[in-house]
Amino acid sequence: MDFGLSEEQSLFQDSLDAYLGDRVGLERVRRIAAGKEDPQALRRELVEFGLSGLLIAERHGGVGLAPMDAAVAAECLGHHVTPAPFLGSSVVAPLALTLAGGQTERLQQLAAGELTIGLAFAEAVGARADAGLVAKGGKLSGKSLYVLDYGAEEYLAADAERRLYLVAAAAVAHQPLATVDRTRTVGELVFQETPATLLSEDPDCLHTLIDTAWVMLAADTLGAAQNMLDQAVAYAKEREQFNRPIGSFQAVKHLCAEMAAQLEPCRALVWYAAHALSAAPDEAHLVACHAKAHLAEVGAFVARTATEVHGGMGFTDLLGLHYWFKRIGFNRQALGTPELVREEAARAQNLAA
Known about the structure:
By secondary structure, this protein is an alpha+beta fold. 55% of the residues lie in helices and 14% in strands. It has helices spanning 7-23, 26-33, 39-49, 67-79, 87-100, 104-112, 123-126, 203-238, 250-279, 281-309, 321-333, 338-348, and strands at 117-120, 132-136, 139-148, 154-158, 164-168, 173-176, 186-195, 197-200, 240-241, 244-245. The strands form 3 sheets. Strands 1-4-5-8 form a 4-stranded mixed sheet. A hairpin with a 5-residue loop joins strand 4 (154-158) and strand 5.
């Protein structure tokens, strides 16, 4: 049995990769990360390409593709360390609104790029002592940290009972949070009896959204790690010491081979995890856990090793490796560390209480 991308998915991957290659060079990443360019301009370019409507049905103005296609897009975005929102408005929010039903207008706005929605349910994965949301009388109180795609017009939020709500950004107090990854916008939301629209009372709905987010973060890490490996190999072929390319030295060969050996099997893992989200729902949760946790570990190894191959140059801003390094580091922590996600996988198999 062959398992891989279809011809259409391969064409989509090649088209998006070329599109990002033309528009998301390292200098533009630097400008956006430094706050010298509005990231919304890049977001609008991705809307024009069609990423905003990937998972939205055609009757709502979208393309009607599957999570597997969104994972292909996430891998490309990670490969180019694209500093634009994707996870919230293009993946998790369309899925949440579709599952909730009766959200035709919002789905149409998302597909057209007229609405952005961030994710405020990190506490549903692992709550900190001073954070978490409580619902009472249709209103939310509490605090949500490390909100993804901060700066959106609305937010998906989960309370302590794992119910899912939609909240207008204008109704909550908020502030940006500084993280290691400056290609992403992250913030903090403070709720004080904030009016919220209940989307779902079923905890399984939130579980599905978190599984999907885990797979997309794993795909993003896969793309970023592959880029770091490619850069390390290219540098090893060009950089010379003792009148020979350093790639001819056995130690450097071993570093590059080990990165490739660990990263290549991850591609099948991520692809299958994305495929399972729609085609094998009984397996989706467990393989999503495996993908998130394993890519976090392998990504960290590749990021560290690729930097070592570059020697002292790897730590400079000239090459910009740190953008990919930090992207991988952020993905590792976002919505659950590898340790936390592996614990969830153990619970899913009745191996832990």
